[in-house]
Write a structure and sequence with these properties.
Helices cover 34% and strands 30% of the residues. It is built from eight helices and eight strands, in the order αββαααααβββαβαββ. The chain is globular, with a radius of gyration of 17 Å.
């Protein structure tokens, strides 16, 4: 059940449309909630991990916010209150350990679309379906609760895991931004993806309303 145009208009009219979102989002194995200082040591370890840096590229990890996750938590809360971006910590249900982040970056409340679905998982927990699970529930909430009509995402050409997650969710490849990012003298293409509400692929979970 997705929001009608009239429903979308009322979401736009809200002072902060993100207030429509039911948080935390609970999934079979995960809790998605706004970040808190309790996540800092886990986030710090994750950002500094060489595999995360290699997948995303060094420049991202040289910014002051990546060196100091406390700044990132404060910025995330400001962005949430302004309705501009949504970034959530990903916690394991079993022990509430923070194992990643998932977000809808660049929320456009005029056209009800998002510039980028983003996801990071602690390398210790890769290939267990956690990024797919967290992203699926976030996209579902975005379409159903926020009335989004389009979610974009991008992945570096070499980032096969990220592209696999997007394809598993139902994202379609829409293009290639050639030589989009240059790192240490090597330029790479960015692959562009998009997802519309009816395209979110069932992946074995149920939210009770689909
Ligand atoms: C991308 C990332 C979030 C995936 O997290 P994850 O929890 O391991 O993802 P999932 O387990 O849900 O799915 C990963 C899929 O990629 C596949 N995969 C992993 N490495 C791969 C590779 N080198 N080539 C092709 N597929 C690969 C896995 O087999 C799995 O697919 P499957 O379920 O069909 O077997 C994680 O690798 C990460 O945090 N990377 C660094 C940050 C990043 O790149 N974020 C994306 C850009 S915003």
């Amino acid at each position: 059940m997705y929001l009608s145009l009239a429903d979308r208009a009322s979401v736009t009219a809200a002072a902060n449309p993100l207030a429509y979102l039911d948080l935390p989002i609970e999934t079979p194995r995960l809790i998605l909630r706004l970040p808190s200082s309790a996540d800092l040591s886990d986030l710090n370890r994750m950002f500094r991990h060489r595999l995360t840096a290699r997948a995303l590229g060094a420049p991202l990890h040289s910014t002051s916010e990546m060196r100091e996750p406390a700044l990132m938590v404060a910025r995330t809360l400001r962005e949430f209150r302004s309705g501009a971006h949504l970034s959530l910590s990903v916690l394991l249900q079993e022990n509430h350990r923070c194992v990643g982040r998932v977000g809808l970056r660049g929320l456009d409340w005029t056209y009800h679309k998002v510039e980028s679905l983003s996801f990071w998982i602690d390398p210790k927990f890769w290939n267990r379906g956690l990024a797919t699970e967290a992203s699926w529930f976030l996209c579902h909430a975005g379409f159903v609760q926020l009335g989004l009509r389009r979610i974009s995402s991008q992945a570096l050409d070499r980032n096969e895991a990220s592209q696999t997650v997007l394809r598993k969710l139902g994202f379609r490849k829409e293009g290639r931004e050639r030589q989009a990012i240059c790192l240490r003298g090597r330029c790479m293409d960015m692959i562009l993806f998009g997802l519309l509400p009816g395209e979110l692929r069932p992946v074995g979970w149920t939210t009770g309303d689909r």
